[in-house]
Specification:
There is one protein chain. Helices cover 38% and strands 17% of the residues. The protein has 15 helices and 17 strands. It has helices at residues 4-11, 42-56, 81-91, 104-111, 135-146, 165-173, 180-193, 213-219, 233-239, 254-267, 308-319, 340-354, 364-372, 387-394, 400-403, and strands at 18-23, 29-30, 37-38, 60-64, 95-98, 118-121, 151-155, 176-178, 200-204, 225-228, 270-272, 276-280, 289-293, 302-306, 323-327, 358-361, 382-383. The strands form 4 sheets. A 6-stranded parallel sheet has the order 5-6-4-1-7-8, sandwiched between helices. Strands 11-10-9-15-16-17 form a 6-stranded parallel sheet, sandwiched between helices. The N and C termini lie close together (7 Å).
Length: 407
């Protein structure tokens, strides 16, 4: 894969060249007020360095991205207009928001731009061709995007596991390069899969075991320790014979988890489960709650966080590691009474950075959690921008948005 500098050399410089940049600007928006508010701008901030690099090199930078899951037609709540405003603030220069993704008006806006200008196109997924499974429909939309540019830079790691028009098909049609954000993500993921510095621990949380089946299976061959929290832990506890009350449980995955526990034992991989749980009477911040042992979860209660003893054990396990990958909160971090387990793991990962070890926050809800709890991205070795893409990489899957760049 060639980088941006190599692409610039191949093009004879970027000055006046139109460069289509696929960024990941899929940020959470709060629509409760008069205007939408971005509640976590981490992905926007992460996109800035590559956009700035191209702009300062004199390119006409045409940024494209998606937001949410519209069904191939425009929906106001998924407009990228608020993102254009935030991107402009971060770049400290005007960003022209183009209210269409493709078409004559968009082509005219790009043609009118001057070297160094930055434009942001409206949501790619307002066009059915972006995510179509039909190669012809997807390719036709890619052809419209290609008319806007002389070259393509892939800098949205959160979408490289998708075979979509702006990720895959455009790269097949234009001179292309990998952006700095994606390059950094791949470098870090290689450190998690090739010549790993050990001990290597993986912390898994979030709601469902079924979301992480393949990655758990793959990690049983690479990780030294797997620490499990979040809603998915109750399926593990059930597999060990414990009752879990009203806690989240995937009954159809219990036998699969029993198999994982047996495989871990055979391979010498340590599975660390919580010894205690914060159990509440309801899924609510003001619900009555108490700390209980995992073998004594009341039948009428729901587990919403790992307990303090578990948090201390997890922290001690992580303190001796040289490499840690974390994906999934330990509890319902959005509610203060159930945020302490997630905070404990975040604090442990931040401490690794001071010791020269690598702690990776695995994107998605995990990245949102650490920011919501007051941590900065530079507190950690790396904060990924792509939860799903990171997991698929760790599963050993080929990611279409990366393989298409390897020529």
């Amino acid at each position: 894969m060639q980088d941006v500098d190599q692409l610039g050399t191949a093009l004879g410089g970027f000055s006046g060249r139109r460069v289509l940049v696929r960024s990941d600007l899929n940020v959470p928006l709060d629509h409760s007020g008069d205007t939408p508010v971005i509640t976590d701008d981490g992905r926007v901030r992460a996109s800035v360095p590559t956009i700035r690099q191209l702009s300062e090199a004199g390119a006409v930078v045409v940024v494209c991205a998606h937001l949410g899951r519209p069904k191939g037609v425009p929906e106001d709540k998924y407009s990228l207009a608020p993102v254009a405003t935030r991107l402009s603030e971060l770049l400290e220069r005007d960003v022209t928001f183009v209210p269409q993704t493709v078409g004559a008006d968009t082509e005219a806006a790009v043609a009118a731009a001057s070297p160094g200008d930055v434009l942001l196109l409206e949501n790619l997924r307002f066009n059915a061709g972006e995510t179509s499974k039909d190669d012809g429909e997807r390719g036709a939309f890619a052809d419209e995007l290609v008319r806007l540019a002389d070259a393509f830079v892939s800098d949205g790691f959160g979408v490289v596991h998708r075979k979509q028009a702006s990720v895959y098909d455009v790269a097949r049609r234009l001179p292309h390069a990998v952006g700095g954000l994606v390059l950094r993500e791949v470098e870090v993921l290689k450190r998690l899969t090739e010549d790993v510095e050990r001990p290597y621990a993986v912390v898994l949380g979030g709601a469902k075991v079924s979301d992480k089946l393949a990655v758990i299976e793959n990690l049983l061959g690479t990780a030294d320790r797997i620490l499990v929290g979040g809603g998915m832990v109750f399926t593990f506890l059930k597999a060990m014979g414990y009752e879990v009350g009203n806690s989240l449980l995937e009954e159809d995955q219990v036998e699969t988890v029993k198999g994982y526990l047996a495989t871990a034992d055979e391979r010498g991989v340590t599975i660390v489960l919580p010894s205690d749980i914060v159990a509440a009477t309801a899924f609510a911040a003001d619900a009555e709650h108490e700390v209980v042992q995992v073998d004594a979860i009341p039948a009428d209660r729901i587990g919403l966080d790992i307990g303090p003893d578990a948090a201390a054990t997890f922290s001690a396990e992580l303190a001796t590691c040289r490499t840690v990958f974390w994906n999934g909160p330990m509890g319902v971090f959005e509610m203060e009474p159930f945020s302490h387990g997630t905070r404990a793991v975040a604090t442990s990962l931040a401490a690794l950075d001071d010791l020269g070890a690598l702690g990776v926050v695995g994107g998605g809800d995990t990245a949102a959690a650490v920011r919501a709890l007051g941590f900065a991205d530079d507190d950690f070795g790396h904060v990924s921008t792509g939860g799903g893409a990171s997991l698929e990489y760790l599963e050993g899957k080929a990611l279409p948005g990366l393989t298409v760049l390897e020529d």
